[in-house]
Amino acid sequence: MITRLLALRCVLHEEENMSLELKNIAKSFSNTASSAKETLKDISLTVNDGEFVCIVGPSGCGKSTLLNIVAGLDAPTAGEFFVNGKKVTGPGADRVMMFQEHALYPWLNVIDNVRFGMKLAGVAKEEQNRRAEKYLKMVKLWEFRSYRIHEISGGMKQRTALARALCLNSPILLMDEPFSALDKQTTNKLRSDLEQIWEETQKTVLFVTHSVEEAVFLADRVVVLSDNPGCIKEIFDISLPRPRQIDSAEFLSTRHQILSCVEKEVEKFAKEEYDQ
Question: Does the reported pTM lie above 0.90?
Answer without folding.
Answer: no
